[in-house]
Amino acid sequence: MTRLFFVLCAALTLAATASSQSLRKGVVDADALIIGRQVGKQLVGDALALHRVQVLEAIRGVDGDRAVTVIDWPKLSLHNRPTPRQSRLFCLQDASVAAARLGLPSSGAPYFKLVGWPGSHPLIGADREADPIARFARVLAASDRGVSPGVTATALVDLAINGHAKIRTEATRYLAERGDLRGKLAAVNWNQLMARATGEVDDIDYKIALATLCGEQRLEGLVAALAVSLGPVTDARYARCVGRISKVLHGERAADVLSRRLRNLAKPEDRRMVLLAIGATKTRAALDALLKMDQDDDAVTAALREHGAKKAHRSKQERR
After folding, report:
1. 8-state DSSP, 129
2. Contact in structure between 314 and 299 (CB atoms under 8 Å)
3. Strand 67-72 relative to strand 111-114: parallel, antiparallel, unpaired?
4. Least buried of 136, 172, 193, 208, by fewest C-beta within 10 Å?
């Protein structure tokens, strides 16, 4: 069921993830994690740059080295590059084979390249101990070193609920992707996460991440709670999220569960968003319900378009 949930939500989360942050993926994929500062740069022709990076803190994978060399191919790499006088988190992958192939001197070792995930080379504040990004990286690194899943899950849920805006969405997405960690959370944690999912109205990426996490846990009453935000939140991505979670949790009954929210709605924008969520369930029951509604209603038309069924398109053509 977990696999099915992610398949159904993939279209929703992919666009948000691609345009925002994937720091968690960079941290997981990295062979080494450091907080560092560029202290030198050497150009080798116009196709290769060598960045000398001072190690301010070795979080994982670098033992005793005071500096490392980051190999960069400026014409090929799209990620942010090391910048002088800036402390950053470096998510690094081993590049010793590439260094040997290029004939680079051993004096520059160890050699790495930057992980290419978006957001995986973020700035770190002057107070490294308190920096939320550094804290997130340390939590995941500690988990790799054998810290118990329960301790890791507790730290991540604290970041997801109380953490800085820079990191709370990443922590939430990471929990959604790790069923073993979700299983360590207590009922009070889930109550807090669900309350935050329903109460958040400003940060839509964060709200969607919370809704997805709670959907993975199949929390009772989740769809009804999420539907309350349809209208106050007018972002279509959230309506799609609610619709797809409803389908996973309720199947063909999803449209009926969401339709209860239509009762006593006074504001047109509230009704429009609920109808959009019903369309996003893409169930036969939702299509049947929408086709029984006023076909000249723009909100109904938008919901049918969201549903995407051929029958809906034929109905629209026949009306024309």
Report:
1. T
2. no
3. parallel
4. 193
